[in-house]
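Fig. S4 source data, part A: sequence.
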Amino acid sequence: MQSQFFPSRTVATYMVRMFVVRTFAILAALVLVLQTLDLLSESGRILAAAGNGDAEIWRYVGLRVPQIIERFLPFSVLLSTILTLSTLNQNSEIVALKGSGLSAHQVLAPLILASFILAILSFSFNDRIVSRATATLNRWQKVQYAALPIDRGDRSNVWVRDGDDLIAVDTVKGKGAAARLFDITIYDRQQGNLIGVIRAGTGVRVPGGWRLDRASRFDVASGRITPLGNVVVARGVRPDQFTLSNVDPNGLSFGALRGAISDLNDAGRPTKALEGSMWHKISGPLSSVLMPLLGAVAAFGIARSGKLFIRAVIGMLLGFAYFVADNFALAMGNLGAYPPILAAWAPFFLFALIGEIVLVRSEE
């Protein structure tokens, strides 16, 4: 029996069914409780907007629930693992499995396979549903739950550096060479010192730079305002530097985020934080595969110690420690302290090693 990874299809099906049912039951309970608590704080803001009613409340629930599922599915897998293995151990089923010649890894194999399938489903769910719900909810919250304006790809409050100069644009409409700038302010600086401010109502792309219409310049030294008329500025600034200013990784799918990172790299913009978020879109759902390994301490070694509750708590603490380490590494990656791949994957491999060590020591 030890030569086969799944010695018994009946036992594997029994364990997977128990594990999956508990996972979704725990997830449903968490979603119900957390969504109720979230509504207590947000319903007042939603109903404060003119014309909002029950329909908008349910719309908010529909947008918020996918985010809660994304965040707490790995935690549900952890709790389900501990509950499933503890139940099997209490009923001496783990002892029977090991008595038939199964190793600890063979006992856990059905749960790890089920977790891997859940990770694939989670990635697809996050990529197709959660990203869209997050993007819509963020735009809705920016207008304080009022009617959403039509999204034509416009950008607002855009800042671009041109050498020492800083360019602030209130609104950017269009893309590429057809981009139009509105309410432009250029801070003319030399060696970090402000020497003048150029203001214009509109600006368009022309060969060799950007043409500002009816521009004026304020000279800091003299305090005078000089009309400039139509003037060409920002000769080294490309259109994509204005249109790629705001990228929300949580509101984009994996493919869309990868494309945005490529465009930002071509424009010479920093992308380290976005790269970390991109890799975390894979490592985040895949963390479900770790949970059976971290929670396995609740299954083995209990026959000798009899401390089932303590081992269950240890498994839970290992899972919590992973979530803390994952969030910490991602934050360090966003700050630039960790490389993006290290920030996304280091906690995963670290706790995979810790889970293996704990499992081997429990076997001994």
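Fig. S4 source data, part B ends here. The two ends are 21 Å apart (CA to CA).
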